[in-house]
């Protein structure tokens, strides 16, 4: 049972990391806390579902359209909403939250909830690892999370766009003097965050079903992971995903499934008391806490 | 009576990530002294101030004020002990009149500790203090929103805020920067007046000429280290100082 | 030809704000009308309205109070996305006292307000050191997690909730109680925010370093603001518990977090009066749109975005400006 729980905890970690990475990337680059993140995740899922089931489009085409559409939506949100209120954290939070609210509540108004609203799994195969039954989808999630995080690391450390991202994240004004267009990078950051949300939905949704409530859950989980790990820090996201992922699985197995959320809440409160900027959040040491 | 130092900075270190912003800085400050801290941009002058007032936590090393260790106290408690600083970037409450900006220091618990220094309601005290730093009484300046004041008056407002706390040690972070010669000339007497009251002052400055005229002692910083300490003339003769300044700012 | 808009204080505004002697009835009316109108309005409305709209007025007042509580926190630099926490904690405090100990509403209401304020303050104490978005994120999460905590631990009736609370004696007492509290909170806290104490609170949100630099412990002040806001929110929760005669997990619902923010944003943040005004516009509107069902919340979301972008100052500031200043176009360049 212990090994099985550990394996599932690893998968849970990957799921949490996938959910949080897009939100975290956007915040890390442009300082925008995209509270519409959960809604974007659900929007992508419904889009793929609609294109496959209602328009009968091939799976891959539907996925490509949904991911690209999400990225465009992210850029549009930046261009037409965030750009006008840039720098006012309060307004950014309220505006993105309003957008997310409108999208999610629109879906619950349509009443698209139920078991048939889900995405297809990649493959029906399953494996038995160390005496534990694991389906292919969960392995795909773990693999994709690992590849994605490694890829992001390569991207931000070894490509010019990625380096520009890091420049903006560290000092926007200085970056401006080097000819980096901070508005374009900002739009790109929200856009990439939205794209990552779509990819996360593509991988994670097949395990359950699409529902507006899931959108709030994703936002909360992403926030929890980012707060514990330290906003804007990719290493922090990974570390926090491990902590929350393992804590959740082990309380689920050994204490009871109702207690998982309490464990996350306790983790947040404890981390904030001990280290207010999160476990690996450092760069904002002066700005965010005194 | 042998004077004991009012401020003892001992082996202070600070690193931000991998960058060592302050390296093993130590110095003592005698009561009534006016210490000037100079150095090229990015040499760690403001970080030093932040470390003394503990707006930034030191990596290692201690700071003692009047013989009491203060480097573990939160910043607001350090202020209550009698250290007041001004900020390089003045950021007053722009929509409020200048005299209302004074409410914040005047609301300080330090006012209650001092008990008896000043009487009257806060607005009246604020106007008195502003007059001390050169807001002409009966003119309208003190009542203007801080956002409408010129830089010279903003710096004076910043100084008045520090004065309000009646500290024993003033730390003035680039008070003169961005001011015209005439404005500097009008602020210097205020500083000299503070000094005549026996207060200790640390001034971080780029305006060397004005600083050397009033400072008792100069500390030169470069790359986070203290490279010279002494009288103004001695310091400027120092080879390390020359190379630091000529190397960094060839003008 | 280029023009710019010039805004000048009306003569009457300049005269009545600076000179202490009021010269005429007109000036006295000018000064007192904006204050008297809402008071008279609030006191007479219950008499005019029918039973259904009286209930609506109840929830208007409750949401206005929640919006005021949000605005006090926001002015102190803490943007809360979880007013439902305050509401829910107060509701459960009153519910437990009434259900298990049989205390009368006139005891539970004040006790729950203070106790709820204390609990919320203690719960958010670790978050006080956070600024800006961090605070918002945590406040968004906590009420949603409280629901799970109650679900898991099965305390206070678990998912069923507690029912059979003692109601307040009559609808009139309910109405006038909540209206009295609303008016007291509105004028009282407006005065507080204009005092030196309020200035310190606003100072914390504008430039906390300069406040720390005055030797002021900002966490103490933030905790006080949190307690004040928490108490107002808790009162709302406790009050609604007795009105509905029930308390359960819905008290932590997102509605209680969103509507107050929407009200404050639409009405105009930073004045408290704007927050209350927003509630008086939004809640009846949402009742009128009852037929739309879930679409109402979609509209709130859209409203939030539109107001934040197009009229960030809010309706109250706009009205205030029109009342105190006149505008005209002046040529600047031919």
Question: Helices and strands in order, then pairings?
Answer:
The complex is a heterotrimer of chains A (290), B (251) and C (334).
Chain A: H1 2-30, H2 37-53, H3 59-80, H4 89-110, E1 126-129, E2 132-135, H5 136-158, H6 160-170, H7 172-177, H8 182-204, H9 212-229, H10 234-254, H11 260-274, H12 285-288
Antiparallel strand pairs in A: 1-2
Chain B: E1 7-16, E2 19-29, E3 34-38, H1 45-52, E4 60-65, E5 68-69, H2 75-81, E6 83-86, H3 98-101, H4 103-106, H5 109-114, H6 122-132, H7 151-164, E7 169-173, H8 181-196, E8 200-204, H9 208-214, E9 217-222, E10 225-230, H10 232-237, H11 239-248
Parallel strand pairs in B: 3-8, 3-9, 6-7, 7-8
Antiparallel strand pairs in B: 1-2, 1-4, 4-5, 9-10
Chain C: E1 2-9, H1 11-18, H2 25-48, H3 51-75, H4 83-101, H5 105-124, H6 133-153, E2 162-163, H7 171-194, H8 196-206, H9 208-212, H10 218-244, E3 246-247, H11 255-267, H12 273-288, H13 295-310, H14 314-324, E4 325-333
Antiparallel strand pairs in C: 1-4, 2-3
Helix pairs in contact in C: 1-2, 2-7, 3-7, 3-10, 3-11, 3-12, 4-5, 4-6, 4-10, 4-11, 5-10, 7-8, 11-12, 11-13, 11-14, 12-14
Keywords, separated by commas or semicolons:
heterotrimer, A: 290 residues, mainly alpha, two-stranded antiparallel ribbon, 12 helices, B: 251 residues, alpha/beta, 2 domains, 4-stranded antiparallel β-sheet, 24% strand, globular
How would you characterize this protein structure?
With 290 residues, chain A is mainly alpha-helical. Chain A has one domain. Chain A contains twelve helices and two strands; from the N terminus they run ααααββαααααααα. In chain A, helix 1 packs parallel to helix 5 and helix 2 (37-53) packs antiparallel against helix 3 (59-80). The radius of gyration of chain A is 19 Å and the shape is globular. Chain B is an alpha/beta fold and 251 residues long. Chain B folds into two domains: 1-82 and 167-251, 3-Layer(aba) Sandwich (Rossmann fold), CATH 3.40.50.300; 89-157, no CATH class. In chain B, 37% of the residues lie in helices and 24% in strands. Chain B has a six-stranded mixed β-sheet with strand order 6-7-8-3-9-10, with helices on both faces. A four-stranded antiparallel β-sheet of chain B has the order 2-1-4-5, covered by helices on one side. Chain B is globular. The relative contact order of chain B is 0.18. With 334 residues, chain C is mostly helical. Chain C has one domain (53-333): ABC transporter involved in vitamin B12 uptake, BtuC (Orthogonal Bundle). Chain C is 72% helix and 6% strand. Chain C has 14 helices and four strands. Chain C has helices spanning 11-18, 25-48, 51-75, 83-101, 105-124, 133-153, 171-194, 196-206, 208-212, 218-244, 255-267, 273-288, 295-310, 314-324, and strands at residues 2-9, 162-163, 246-247, 325-333. In chain C, helix 2 runs antiparallel to helix 7 (171-194) and helix 4 (83-101) packs across helix 10. The model of chain C has no long low-confidence stretch (mean pLDDT 84). The chains are: A mainly alpha (290), B alpha/beta (251), C mainly alpha (334).
């Amino acid at each position: 049972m212990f090994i099985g729980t550990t394996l599932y905890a690893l998968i849970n970690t990957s799921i949490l990391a996938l959910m949080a990475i897009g939100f975290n990337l956007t915040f890390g680059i442009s300082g925008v806390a995209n509270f519409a993140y959960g809604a974007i995740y659900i929007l992508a899922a419904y889009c793929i579902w609609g294109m496959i089931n209602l328009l009968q489009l091939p799976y891959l085409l539907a996925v490509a359209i949904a991911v690209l559409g999400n990225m465009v939506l992210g850029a549009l949100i930046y261009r037409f909403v965030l750009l006008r209120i840039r720098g006012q954290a309060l307004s950014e939070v309220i505006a993105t939250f309003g957008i997310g609210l409108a999208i999610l509540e629109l879906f619950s108004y349509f009443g698209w909830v139920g078991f048939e609203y889900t995405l297809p799994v990649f493959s029906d195969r399953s494996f038995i690892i160390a005496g534990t039954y694991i389906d292919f989808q969960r392995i795909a999630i773990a693999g994709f999370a690992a590849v994605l995080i490694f890829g992001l690391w390569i991207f931000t450390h070894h490509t010019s766009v990625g380096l520009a991202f890091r420049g903006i994240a560290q000092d926007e004004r200085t970056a401006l003097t080097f000819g980096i267009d901070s508005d374009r990078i900002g739009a790109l950051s929200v856009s990439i965050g939205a794209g990552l949300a779509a990819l996360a939905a593509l991988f994670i949704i097949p395990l359950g079903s699409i529902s507006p409530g899931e959108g709030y859950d994703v936002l909360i989980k992403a926030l929890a992971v980012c707060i514990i790990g330290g906003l804007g820090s990719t290493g922090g996201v990974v570390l926090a995903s491990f902590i929350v992922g393992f804590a959740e699985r082990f309380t689920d197995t050994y204490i009871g499934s109702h207690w998982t959320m309490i464990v996350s809440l306790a983790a947040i409160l404890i981390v904030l008391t001990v280290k207010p900027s999160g476990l690996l959040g450092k760069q904002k040491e002066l700005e965010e806490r005194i | 009576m042998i004077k004991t130092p009012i401020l003892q900075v001992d082996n202070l270190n600070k690193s931000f990530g991998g960058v060592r912003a302050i390296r093993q800085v130590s110095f003592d400050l005698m009561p009534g002294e006016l210490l000037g801290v100079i150095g090229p941009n990015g040499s760690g002058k403001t970080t030093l101030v932040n470390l003394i007032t503990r707006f930034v936590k030191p990596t290692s090393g201690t700071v003692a004020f009047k013989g009491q260790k203060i480097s573990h106290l939160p910043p607001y408690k350090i202020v209550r002990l009698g250290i007041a600083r001004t900020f390089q970037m003045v950021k007053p409450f722009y929509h409020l009149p200048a005299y209302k900006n004074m409410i914040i220091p005047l609301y300080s618990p330090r006012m209650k500790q001092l008990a008896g220094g000043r009487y009257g309601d806060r607005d009246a005290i604020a106007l008195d203090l502003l007059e001390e730093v050169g807001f002409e009484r009966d003119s309208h300046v003190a009542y203007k929103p801080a956002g409408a004041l010129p830089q010279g008056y903003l710096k004076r407002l910043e100084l008045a805020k520090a004065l309000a706390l009646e500290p024993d040690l003033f730390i003035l972070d680039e008070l003169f920067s961005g001011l015209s010669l005439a404005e500097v000339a009008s602020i210097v007497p205020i500083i000299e007046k503070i000094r005549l009251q026996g207060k200790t002052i640390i001034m971080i400055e780029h305006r060397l000429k004005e600083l050397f005229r009033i400072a008792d002692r100069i500390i030169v910083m470069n790359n986070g280290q203290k490279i010279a300490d002494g009288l103004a003339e001695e310091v400027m003769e120092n080879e390390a100082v020359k190379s630091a300044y000529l190397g960094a700012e060839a003008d | 030809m280029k023009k710019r808009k010039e805004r000048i204080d009306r003569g009457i505004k300049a005269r009545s704000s600076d000179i202490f002697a009021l010269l005429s009835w007109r000036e006295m009316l000018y000064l007192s009308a904006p204050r008297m109108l809402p008071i008279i309005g609030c006191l007479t409305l219950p008499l005019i309205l029918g039973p259904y709209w009286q209930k609506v007025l109840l929830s208007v007042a409750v949401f206005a109070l929640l919006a005021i509580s949000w605005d006090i926190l926001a002015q102190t630099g803490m943007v809360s996305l979880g007013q439902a926490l305050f509401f829910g904690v107060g509701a459960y405090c009153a519910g437990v006292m009434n259900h298990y100990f049989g205390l009368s509403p006139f005891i539970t209401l004040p006790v729950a307000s203070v106790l709820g304020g204390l609990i919320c303050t203690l719960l958010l104490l670790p978050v006080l050191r956070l600024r800006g978005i961090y605070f918002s994120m945590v406040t968004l999460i906590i009420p949603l997690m409280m629901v799970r905590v109650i679900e898991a631990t099965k305390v206070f009736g678990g998912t069923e909730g507690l029912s059979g609370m003692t109601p307040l004696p009559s609808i009139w007492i309910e109405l006038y109680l909540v209206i009295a509290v609303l008016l007291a909170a509105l004028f009282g806290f407006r005065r507080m925010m204009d005092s030196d104490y309020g200035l310190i609170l606003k100072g914390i949100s504008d430039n906390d370093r300069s406040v720390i630099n005055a030797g002021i412990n900002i966490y103490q002040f933030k905790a006080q603001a949190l307690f004040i806001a928490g108490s107002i929110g808790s009162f709302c929760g406790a009050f609604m518990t007795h009105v509905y005669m029930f308390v359960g997990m819905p008290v932590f619902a997102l509605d209680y977090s969103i509507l107050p923010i929407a009200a404050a944003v639409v009405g105009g943040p930073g004045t408290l009066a704007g927050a209350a005004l927003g509630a008086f516009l939004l809640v009846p509107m949402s009742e009128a749109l009852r037929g739309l069902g879930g679409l109402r919340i979609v509209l709130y979301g859209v409203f939030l975005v539109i107001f934040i972008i197009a009229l960030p100052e809010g309706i109250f500031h706009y009205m205030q400006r029109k009342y105190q200043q006149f505008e005209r176009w002046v040529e600047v360049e031919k």
